[in-house]
From TrEMBL:
Pfam families: MMR_HSR1. GO terms for molecular function: GTP binding; metal ion binding. Belongs to the TRAFAC class TrmE-Era-EngA-EngB-Septin-like GTPase superfamily. EngB GTPase family. One of its GO terms (cellular component) is mitochondrion. PROSITE patterns: G_ENGB. Its cofactor is Mg(2+). This is GTP-binding protein 8. NCBIfam families: GTPase_YsxC (TIGR03598). Signal peptide: none annotated. CDD domains: YihA_EngB. Residues 105-278 form the EngB-type G domain.
Length: 293
């Protein structure tokens, strides 16, 4: 348990490829356990790969690995999320209306979803190498009331949104709709779904906005640490079916994350680096589907 906790901390603070080696250097007594953890490390980085072992071989898995970077690509993407004197990562500003939103030319990605689905926690996990960044999370739904902008050097901006559904700010639709419709440098909208419940009625507001405005979006399945594998797989297949049958602009691959256990965070960082034009993938190709976006 102690070793797992150490690995988790390492994964939060170190690039993924080095994490295992540094771990061995610092905790040689845990060698054996780490051997066991080689697979574990893989499942932390690619949570979907571990899960698909439990699937019936007849299930179509073609959309599972459209974005399938190598460890090298993932490691290079990590550099973008590490602050330095030349690459400051910090909260920039917040806005309650679009005319308050900053005019930024760098590419942007935003995170939307029901209140309490884990948007702010995910952003905090993505920025785990920036300990004082000040992303606020709460057990109480409806915590984030404004559109919060975080600058990642000159590379891109990451935007945390208020949630919709229970205890949403009353001007949510005006605020978020205007943002999604007019933000010219918005490269990707991440729409978060709770792994325990999948697509809910309230999510249709966000899906319809993305479809209507023709903006590229991707589902991120959150809190996967809280759901049993069988149940999670059931939800994933349902979400996939939804994507295939009911959406046009949604990226077909689902991204799974646990902000608590840090699963899927490195892969998502790499995807963000890629979609914002900051990472050219060396060792892999994004398959055809993405070009349909
Ligand atoms: N177990 C577990 N809990 C999580 C995870 N992500 C978030 N949570 C918890 O879910 C609750 C809500 O998290 P937030 O990140 O504040 O959710 P939000 O979507 O930003 O919520 P609003 O700002 O209210 O819209 C908090 O109690 C978090 O600790 C996760 O991956 N695993
Ligand atoms: Mg929040």
């Amino acid at each position: 348990m102690l070793c797992m906790e150490r690995i988790r901390r390492f994964l939060q603070t170190n690039s993924v490829q080095m994490a295992a080696y540094r771990y061995i250097e610092r905790y040689p007594s845990c060698h054996e356990l780490l051997h066991l953890q080689a697979g574990k490390l893989n499942s932390v980085v690619f949570p979907l790969k571990e899960l698909e072992n439990y699937l019936n071989p007849n299930v179509d898995k073609t959309t599972f690995h459209i974005f399938d970077p190598s460890f090298d690509d993932i490691k290079r993407a990590e550099e973008l999320f590490k602050p330095s004197s030349k690459h400051e990562i910090d909260f920039f500003t917040s806005a309650v209306r679009m005319d308050h939103a900053p005019l930024l030319s760098q590419p942007e990605v935003c995170f939307i979803g029901r209140s309490n689905v884990g948007k702010s926690s995910l952003i905090k996990a993505l920025f785990s190498m920036v300990p004082d960044i000040g992303v606020r999370v709460s057990k109480t739904p409806g915590h984030t009331k404004k559109i919060n902008f975080f600058k990642v050097g000159k590379s891109f901006t990451l935007v945390d949104m208020p949630g919709y559904g229970y205890r949403a700010p009353k001007d949510f639709v005006e605020m978020v709709e205007a943002y999604l419709e007019t933000r010219e440098n918005l490269r990707k909208t991440f729409l978060l779904l709770d792994g325990a419940v999948g697509v809910q009625k309230a999510d249709m507001i966000a899906v319809e906005m993305c479809e209507e405005f023709g903006i590229p979006y991707t589902f991120v399945v959150t809190k996967i640490d809280r759901v049993q594998k069988g149940e999670l797989l059931k939800q994933l297949l349902q979400i996939q079916k939804f994507v295939k049958k009911k959406t046009q602009g949604c990226f077909p691959q689902l991204f799974l994350v646990s902000s608590l256990h840090f699963s899927g965070i490195h892969l998502l960082r790499c995807f963000i680096a890629h979609v914002t034009g900051n990472l050219y993938l060396l060792n892999t190709a994004i398959k055809q589907q993405e070009s349909q976006e």
